[in-house]
Amino acid sequence: MKQVLYSLLALLFTPPILAADMPLNMTQGVTEISGKVFSLHMTILYICCAIGVVVFGVMIYSIINHRRSKGAVAANFHESTKVEIAWTVVPFVILIIMAIPATKTLIAMEDPSNADITIKVTGSQWKWHYSYFDHDIEFFSLLSTPREQIEGTEAKGENYLLEVDKPLVLPINKKIRFLMTSDDVIHSWWVPAFAVKKDANPGFINEAWTRIDKPGTYRGQCAELCGKDHGFMPIVVEALSEADFESWIQDQKAQASLAAAQAEAALSQTLSMEELMAQGEQIYMARCAACHQPNGAGLPGVFPSLIGSPIIKGPVSGHIDIVLNGKPGTAMQAFAKQLTAAEIAAVVTYERNAWGNDSGDAVQAVDVNSDGSAISVESNTEAPTRLPANLPETADVVPTVESAVAATAEKTVVLDDLTMEELMAMGEKVYLTSCVACHQASGTGLPGAFPSLVGSPVITGPVSDHLDIVINGKAGTAMQAFSAQLTPQQLAAVVTYERNAWGHNSGDAVQASDVDGHGK
């Protein structure tokens, strides 16, 4: 009995710092909330251990000292009011003692107010998309573990299946608000070091927050079974000092400008079939092989085969369109915001010529419209019938980014005005890609979180005000600026769609030329 008592005292008075070093215990994390969660965990653990020691101590003592061989006679506690009151009141008091700190911690975990930075986290099969509302930065984060390690032909790395090509970068000592949603099925964004684990549901927005205390790299995973590659959907967060984070922001903006210039230059380049196939294979293996398999055979009943597929064998324009915009109601997602025109051209070329398809089609970047629609391409020897906005009017290959920018500034091609039908069709695609997560497909929003667009004063008010809020966002809300994410044509189309959908019927047909001058 003395040993039991000593064990109980040792357990109750073990310093938490020693418990934190136990390899099977919960980690303390690097945020105030994770510290509270750890303290709550240890408090509950100690209470449960104390209860276990007392209960089993009494049981063992009774078994030894009140056994039949010693002549003990069992006492009769039948219908004992005192005993019944005791075993009701004591557990109730214990639960209250446990509930008070638990409630305080849960309330703190669910308070994302007064955030310094808001980031939308969108899950899709099988990657994460991050949008920084306050900085007009967005990117996809994909698993970067080499296929050779996954297939077992190489030794596993230190961070096997927990490494990505682009980590989420956050500043320390700032309150970060997360808006969680999904493009397809239910995912769950989980980083143990932050004590953040929140489901990302399609069509809904969940909120979470964190404030990181220490710089470093923190890893997590999708914690909801979301399909066959659920285990290949890691999360990596790099926490930087505030000064380093500001430097990273400026670097990202510079890279975005450079990437835009490079994409513009690529529109005037003509790659050989060999170059297209080599680039297309790399993109296919990184972005498409998870569903359609490296050999293009797909998974029968789940993901269609690309070998001899009607899409692959059909018109190039239809093939480009489904890669750009996806296919509603299926797992085929839109890659318009994930890949450049040159990358889409390369992967389409690869799919049309790999695995025995051998179409001979060599699709170029200029064949892919920057507004998210496909150009009718039947022969690569002919010029496309419609040029993307801001494309330099030259047939020469632009050798450098600088010369491409100069050529663009010197002379541009302006798109003709679109009809109402064309604007509505394009606007619906843009809305379902960029706006539906917050405002819903029906435009009704999420009461208390995101306003309804049906009958909204912004929608029914002046066109200029509507354009301004879409282009520049609205400070202090989750409405981000789309000036850096959408082309003038896309901005005009989505505003037209919102002003004429869901019974608005304003008749306003906004053109790309109407966007000029806003947001500058």
UniProtKB/TrEMBL annotation:
Residues covered by the Cytochrome oxidase subunit II transmembrane region profile domain: 18-113
Keywords: Copper, Electron transport, Heme, Iron, Membrane, Metal-binding, Respiratory chain, Signal, Translocase, Transmembrane, Transmembrane helix, Transport
Stretches assigned to the Cytochrome c domain: 275-355, 422-502
Membrane topology: Multi-pass membrane protein
Stored InterPro entries: CcO_II, CcO_II-like_C, CcO_II_C, Copper_CuA, Cupredoxin, Cyt_c-like_dom, Cyt_c-like_dom_sf, Cyt_c_oxidase_su2
Residue ranges annotated for the Cytochrome oxidase subunit II copper A binding domain, each copy included: 114-251
Protein name, as recorded: Cytochrome c oxidase subunit 2
Compartments it resides in: Cell membrane; Membrane
Pfam short name (any one): COX2_TM
EC number: 7.1.1.9
Cofactor dependence: Cu cation
Annotated signal peptide: 1-19
Enzyme class name: translocase
Gene giving rise to this polypeptide: coxB
Organism of origin: Shewanella colwelliana (Alteromonas colwelliana)
Domain of life: Bacteria
Enzymatic reactions: 4 Fe(II)-[cytochrome c] + O2 + 8 H(+)(in) = 4 Fe(III)-[cytochrome c] + 2 H2O + 4 H(+)(out)
Function: Subunits I and II form the functional core of the enzyme complex. Electrons originating in cytochrome c are transferred via heme a and Cu(A) to the binuclear center formed by heme a3 and Cu(B).
Family annotation (NCBIfam families): CoxB (TIGR02866)
UniProt family annotation: Belongs to the cytochrome c oxidase subunit 2 family.
TM segment ranges: 43-64, 85-103
Cofactor binding note: Binds a copper A center.
